[in-house]
Amino acid sequence: MQDIPWGGMVILLPLAGAMACFLSPLRAKLLGLVSALAIVACVAGLSWQMVALGVQRYTIGGWGAPLGIDLYADGLSLLMLIVTAMVGLAISVYSSGYFDRDKARDFWPLWLFLWAALNALFLSADIFNLYITMELLGLAAVALVALAKGTDAMTGAMRYLLVSLLGSLFFLLGVALLYHSVGSVDIVILAERLVPSPAVWVALGLMSAGLLLKTALFPLHFWLPPAHASAPAPVSALLSALVVKASFYILLRLWLEIFPAANAAPGQLLGLLGAVAVLWGGLQALRQTRLKMLIAYSTVAQLGYLFLAFPLASITGWTGALYVLLSHAAAKTAMFMAAGNILRFGGHDRIADLDRVVQHLPLTVTAFGLAGISIMGLPPSGGFIAKWLLLEAAIRSGQWWWGVILVLGGLLSAAWVFKVIGHAFTPSAAPHDSRVVPVSMEWAALAMALVAILLGLFTSWPLALMEIGLPFGGEGGE
Question: Is it true that the peptide bond before 438 is cis, omega within 30 degrees of 0?
């Protein structure tokens, strides 16, 4: 078992599943669910292998760096693979009841292809392959957004496509500059050989700008709410939980491994933008009248918390940011699934006209409420652990003002969560036709909400995984 190349299999299996779904569209749902289970099993195998043996490196085709393609798995990449597997399985179960046969034929190949791109990105050992996988990821995500048809979906998809291409162009220009300066694109070699120079700093700026655009950090967030709100519910969930986090993952690799000396003044700027995102996103979410748009703007706010770790630049701060990523992925998946259930049931997602939806969809409203507990940062949720770690890092570093942002962001989150829950218990005068929501869709949402809560009760395993290979390298100290 320890000799099985699990790292390669977590990429090949979703690719094979995507091809199978494409060639056999009538069985796409069954093939997609089987593929999802197989991918989760492979990620479990890789986890067991890494716990026993530590960091894993796979050489593709017998050619290693700097000429060949290597796959590299440490604690950070393993954590991302596990999050992707959990969210991916839930989305697969949810989608089996969400899409009709015609939409399913298009969804399953694209979804599994996107899953393969995510896994390949998290295992890439050089920045050029990060670019390739990021580009494939973006193209698949755009196609999935367009599945909803309609003017709003096509406009959101086109805007997403242009933003994705622009961000990738900036990143590729930075890759070219680094290759010209060092003669390699391997992350380990770059970290060893890189000498600060104007070209290197320009490369960092270009790559960071491209990634910030893809991550939708304020004020580059303009594309995210329309794309997420107009997409089908499972697509909105995977975009918010996984796709935007992939760009943040690359940003972490750049700043912590290749450019660790760049964490001072630029880190303060990223923290400031993150703080504005927390407040602006929360206020905009509170103003929305439609549920999916509200959740989309809350994603802008939650992404801001990730960037509060950059000015803190400590192990505690980075761990807090990773915990934000984990808890947000689970909670936001649950919220978008809940929104999809409500939209399917009532035919709309107008918050003011939810019309006592709790009587008809109790599991859905429970899922939204539990996810809201984590988003607000209340105990005993994963969101509480994440914000506690960030608060601790802020106090230790003497930067107490970031703690104020954490508190204000939590209050804004509470305001819009209670706004939705309140209307879910309130009768509406607006008549509507109701449709049956499959039980699998309700339970998938509830399962992800429970994961967001359980992350606050079982903190040892995520923290232990983060230490495999010391992906943070101890930068910044405690």
Answer: no
- pLDDT for 350 equals 83
State the distance between the two ends of the chain, measured CA to CA, in whole angstroms.
Answer: 37
pLDDT one-digit tens code per residue, 100-115:
888 888 899 999 999 9
Residue 159 CB-density burial (10 A; 0-12 exposed, 13-18 middle, 19+ buried) = middle
Residues lower than pLDDT 50 in the chain? 431, 473-478
The torsion angles phi and psi of 72, rounded to 5 degrees, stand at -135, 130
Residue 377 gets the label, from left (phi > 0), alpha (psi -120 to 50) or beta, of: left
Q: Which residues of 195-234 are buried (b: 16+ CB within 10 A; e: fewer)?
A: eeeeebeebbebbbbbbbbbbbbbebbebbbbbbbbbbbb
Q: What is the pLDDT of residue 142?
A: 92
SS3 57: strand
Handedness of CA 311, 316, 320, 321 (dihedral sign): positive
- The C-alpha atoms of residue 360 and residue 223 are separated, in whole angstroms, by 34
| Residue-level length of the chain | 478
This prediction's pTM: 0.91
- Report the pLDDT value the prediction gives residue 257, as an integer from 0 to 100: 83
Rounded CA gap, 38 and 24, in Å?
A: 18
Other beta carbons within 10 angstroms of residue 75's beta carbon come to 22
Nearest to 455 by CA among 362, 364, 325, 337: 325
Q: Which residues contact 362 (CB under 8 A, 6 or more apart)?
A: none
15-19, long-range: CB < 8 A, 24+ apart? 15/112, 15/113, 15/116, 17/112, 18/108, 18/109, 18/110, 18/111, 18/112, 18/113, 18/116, 19/109
Coil, strand or helix: which one is 91? helix
pLDDT (0 to 100) of residue 474: 41
CB atoms within 10 A of CB 339: 26
Q: Which amino acid is at 344?
A: R
Q: Which two tokens stand for residue 47?
A: 């986890």
Buried b (16+ CB within 10 A) or exposed e, 44-56: ebbbebbeeeeeb
Given a contact cutoff of 8 angstroms between Cβ atoms, the answer to whether 59 and 120 are in contact is: no
CA distance 320 to 404: 16
CA dist., res. 63 & res. 317, Å (int): 37
